[in-house]
Amino acid sequence: MPFKFTFQKIVDLKTSEKTQAEWTLSTAVGELRMEEQSLQQLRLEKQSVQDRLYAESEVRTTVSELMIYQSYMDHIDHKISEKSKDVTAAQKNVDIQKETLTVKMMEEKVWLNARDKAKQRFMSEWLKKEQDSLDEMASVRHRRTV
């Protein structure tokens, strides 16, 4: 007689929810990495413009050209500020998804433990019945030989 857990569909659901939470976390981590890379690119671009600005300021350059560089630097600074906010938001999303995954993993574990305990009870009862049957057969044989 095979073991059949009454709440197996709940166990399956909890496992599915955990898997979905893992995927969601993976997506959130990917988005965070993209935002961080984009921020890093902006910082590299800013450094490049600063280097050009310093190089241009050492040679004969008009004030209007320097102002153009400075204006572009201000634009990049604004983009860096916005991208930093995006990175922070992406990090918060990752933290939320980690917490969600932790909760889903705990829920799954609770149901898996319940299933394991039910299986242990089933096996214990089944073995007891089996032993009772063997004891009954032994006592019947013993009565026949006496």
Q: What are the defining features of this structure?
A:
146 residues; mainly alpha
Plain-language structure description:
By secondary structure, the protein is mostly helical. It has two helices and no strands. Helix content is about 90%, strand content about 0%. Helix 1 packs antiparallel against helix 2. The protein is rod-shaped, with a radius of gyration of 34 Å.
Q: What value does the Rg take, in angstroms?
A: 34 Å
Largest beta sheet, briefly? Answer: none
- Morphology: rod-shaped
Task: Estimate the mean pLDDT confidence.
Answer: 93
List SSEs in N-to-C order: HH
Q: How many DSSP-defined strands? A: 0
- The unreliable regions are none
**Helix count?**
2
Distance between the termini: 34 Å
Which class do the helix and strand fractions yield?
mainly alpha
Residues in helix, %: over 70%
How much of the polypeptide forms β-strand, as a percent range? Answer: under 5%
Summed up, what is this model?
The chain is built from 2 helices and no strands. The protein is mainly α and 146 residues long.
